[in-house]
Amino acid sequence: MPSVFAGRRKTRSMTDRVTLVIGLSHQEAVELGVEEADTEHVLLGLLREGHGVAGVALRALGLSYESVRTRFDRSPGSPHSPSREVTPFTPRVKEAFRLAAAESQRAGSDRIETEHLLLALATVPHGVAADILAGAGVDEGALRAEIDRILTTDPPGRLPDLDDVNQEISRLEDAAAVALRADDLDLFRELTETRNSVVEQMFDRVERWRANLDAYAVLELVEEQQRLRAEVQNLRVLLAEEESEPPDHS
């Protein structure tokens, strides 16, 4: 995976999901006919990808791709001038990636994940993405809390840990057997119903995990890998150019 921070002591690479988000962000900018991809397009990219931690967190906090996208749709009959195929990022987006790299380091990860990028978008000064989040009542604290909840329960793309569920099922089955031997049919039925409910919840968790994997696999197939690599390379060049510029002390 290409690095977005060439020349740094420790390389921060991006996960496949973040690479996909970059491509989707550019696609949003192209479709909206703007010259540069800004923070709002990255937010749309996170929502459109939808199956990483960031997308799951945003949905849980009440934000959907459709609700955000409608803010930027052109009015009927307005001219549409598509921008060039590879759209550059604004300085705000490049700052977001720097903040995401720092967030990744604080989290003890060697890669930029979607949640790191989302937290960065929420803190970039004068960014439209931050304004959208604030307008929806979503601040950095709410994002962190929801991300922590997701990462400690059912992280997207990771098979959920079902040991605790299996132990609970075994406990209920043992208790139901004891109740049956004691001819306590009411307790037996209650424990059996509870056991069946826990089993259904376990199946739901596994199905959600499978759905996330399937949806992401389909999304990967429809995206043009060559274009994504070109866009990632474009980001690297833009970041390298800005880092090589001498600071303005005026």
From TrEMBL:
GO terms for biological process: proteolysis. It comes from the Bacteria. It holds the Pfam family Clp_N. Signal peptide: none annotated. Residues 11-153 form the Clp R domain. Residues 218-245 form a coiled coil. Keywords: Coiled coil, Hydrolase, Protease, Repeat. One of its GO terms (molecular function) is peptidase activity. SUPFAM superfamilies: Double Clp-N motif. This is ATP-dependent Clp protease. It comes from Frankia alni (strain DSM 45986 / CECT 9034 / ACN14a).
